[in-house]
What we know:
Layout lengths: L3 H14 L15 E6 L7 H6 L6 E6 L10 H11 L5 E5 L11 H10 L8
Parallel strand pairs: 1-2, 1-3
Amino acid sequence: MATLLQEILTNNHEFLVNNKYTKEISKYPQKKFALLTCMDTRLVELINKALGIHRGDAKIIQNAGTSLIGEMGETVKSLLLTIYVFDIKEIFIVGHYDCGVALTSSKDILHNMRSRGVSEQQL
Length: 123
């Protein structure tokens, strides 16, 4: 029985062998915008279809809950890079309904960590 990692690596190998990847798309987004959205699995492929964008159109940043936390958190740094390195002109922030992060508190996360054996010292 193959592991999930083996399955993913096999798919990747077949993808490369069958030349399904083209390098013709620039690292500079054609539509000059960045999209910040949630990492929710329901948005994979759906967000592109819902917004009518394709590979190469935008820089897409996904994180838990479409969060912009901290003055120079990783998301803010990524957005600054899109502006000053990749010549982004607009940033769109798109949330969604029924977000798991919106329904979760730090207290809940800590409880789940403890229940899985993470010690107080590690927390």
